[in-house]
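In response to the reviewer comment on reproducibility (Comment 2.3), we provide here a single inverse folding case reported in full, input and output, so that an independent group could reproduce the run without further information from us. The structure tokens appear first.
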């Protein structure tokens, strides 16, 4: 389990560096609200970006973005709602997915899916 945690943490660091290089302002990483977690929160121009990072080794069976299912989306939206209210943020929220692949050469961001999903209507 420790290796899996290290892989995820290192993938999140690669995603964070990727976003910084693109000019995003990182607000928080691994922010917890109750039993929910946001991997990365950042600001891109006038938008709050909630980025879900999915890290896999290069021999993965299911694509990283496929792991963001309806249950995960609902949890991310609930945590983002808590985040916005806790920090009194008055910006529109965008949900992105960043896929990171670990290979022998290291970690690399393979895809940054902007506006990956919208908050479901309740």
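Designed residues, in position order:
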């Amino acid at each position: 389990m420790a290796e899996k945690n290290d892989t995820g943490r290192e993938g999140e660091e690669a995603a964070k560096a990727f976003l910084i290089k693109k000019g995003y302002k990182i607000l928080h990483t691994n922010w917890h609200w109750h039993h929910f977690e946001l991997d990365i929160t950042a600001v891109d121009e006038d938008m709050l970006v909630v980025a879900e990072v999915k890290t896999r080794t290069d021999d993965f069976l299911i694509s990283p973005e496929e792991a963001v299912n309806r249950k995960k989306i609902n949890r991310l939206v609930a945590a983002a709602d808590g985040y916005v209210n806790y920090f009194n943020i008055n910006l529109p929220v965008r949900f992105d997915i960043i896929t990171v692949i670990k290979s022998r050469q290291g970690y690399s961001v393979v895809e940054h899916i902007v506006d990956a999903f919208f908050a479901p209507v309740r």
